[in-house]
Amino acid sequence: MKKIISAVLISSMFFTSAAFADPVFEGHAEYSDQYKQEATELFTGEVEHLERKDIINMTVSQVLDGSINMEGDEFFAEVTNEVSGDKGVIIPKGTIAHGKITHSGDPKRMGRDAWLELSFDYLVTPDGREIPIEGKMTTRLHPAVETTKILVQDVGYTVAGGAVGGLVALNWLGLEAAIASQGYTLAGGAAVGGVIGLGMALMRKGNEVLIAPGDEIRVKINTTVPLPVYKDTALKQHEIFYPGLDISISNIEHEEDPFGELNTITITVLISNMSDKDFSGLDMALVNDYNKVFRPSIFGDTKMMFRKINSGDKILGNISFTVDNVNRSFWLAFFDRRSGTAVTKISLDNAYRKLPEKQKKKNIKKARRKTNFKKEPDLLDDI
Q1: pLDDT along the chain (383 residues), means of 10
Q2: I want to staple 114 with a disulfide (CB 3.0 to 4.6 A). Which of 99, 209, 235, 378 is the partner?
Q3: CA 275-347-359 angle, 5° bins
Q4: What is the DSSP secondary-structure string of 262-314?
Q5: Contact at 8 Å (CB) between 105 and 115?
Q6: Do residues 74 and 100 lie in contact, with contact meaning Cβ atoms separated by under 8 Å?
């Protein structure tokens, strides 16, 4: 009897524990028809490789300040130029990169600037794919280049100091003393000035580093990654058209304003207005992907700014716009004067893809030349 009762208790405990145990699910993963359809719409079926030592141009999404940010801080950057292989685009503009500050250096005496070293571990494409990469970027100069730069600056300080010393000696002792001493007073003054200048050079501290949105950073890839090739239709930005108003953009040039800032976009546009509306150059604007509107600029080409574009007109010309960041996505918009709404929006990204490689490289070169990652001194710091 005891054996029977024991068997019943053991059986009941087994079934009770089994009933309250975590359920075990069995299954498998597979590609859905929806995924296959999306892949068919986006990609050509070809594969290219992002190679080691390839360079990706990006801009950061927030300010990286060497005096504030620390090693380990995370940030995001955005790809500003499409990366293409022989078969087509593999990384579209607008792809987001995840980065981290891995090393940093403070400004030193003798004019040595601060520096930041950044690393990147993955990309997120506009279609939602996450791509693991290994990329690096640094603002630190090569030691040989940095030494040359410091040497040139220090010679400048020393020569300037010598010149000032000679002038002080001339003012204090007079031209007659200089003649009587056969110029030794000037030489002595120049020597003292040179010592002062050298002291200034030795004491001079380098600049803090600052990377701001709009500054181009060039990220070198350290891995080889196979990537699918996008179809041209998958990369096209949405546009709005008005019946009878045909807009064709044949050139897009990034230019500096009179103050040396690379913030002007000049476009060459052919306008055929066979619509029922009249426009003028002041009805045109650039609209970015944040819906911020930029009107024609007086600092660029102004020939079309005050020109009327009546129904039946066909006009070819240039028009310039001053923007906050030339690397963003923009649309050329025509606004209806009565309603204030945009009746036409033509994508500059779509037009840019058709530009000659020579013009694209020219714009990239300008962006690269204007980036020095130096933080301008704040005048309030000295108060």
Answers
A1: 44 43 42 53 90 88 86 93 90 93 71 78 89 87 42 46 42 44 43 44 59 87 90 91 96 92 94 95 94 92 89 95 93 94 96 91 81 65 48
A2: 209
A3: 115
A4: EEEEEEEEEEEE-SS--EEGGGEEEEETT--EEPBPTTS--TTTT-EE-TT-E
A5: yes
A6: yes
- Reported pTM: 0.69
CA-wise closest residue to 245 among 345, 339, 328, 177: 345
pLDDT tens, residue by residue, 8-18 = 444 444 444 44
| Residue with the two structure tokens 């906050």 | 324
Q: Whole-angstrom Cα distance, residue 362 to residue 224?
A: 28
CB burial of residue 17 (10 Å; 0-12, 13-18, 19+): exposed
Two tokens, residue 246: 């045909």
Identify whether the C-beta of residue 97 lies closer than 8 Å to the C-beta of residue 76.
Answer: yes
46 Cβ neighbours under 8 A, 6+ residues apart: 87, 88, 228, 229
The long-range contacts involving 292-295, CB below 8 angstroms and separated by at least 24 positions, are: 292/324, 293/333, 294/321, 294/322, 294/323, 294/324, 295/321
Within 10 angstroms of residue 317's Cβ, the number of other Cβ atoms is 15
For residue 19, give both structure tokens: 């009933």
Per-residue pLDDT reduced to its tens digit, 218-266: 899 888 889 999 998 888 999 999 999 999 999 999 999 888 889 999 9
CA distances from 284 to 276, 302, 348 (A): 17, 12, 14
Contact of 345 with 245, CB cutoff 8 Å: no
Q: Which amino acid is at 37?
A: Q
**What's the distance, CA 208 to chain centroid?**
19
Calculate the CA dihedral of residues 293, 298, 299, 304 and round it to 10 degrees: 90
Under 8 Å CB-to-CB from 232, ≥6 apart: which residues? Answer: 88, 353
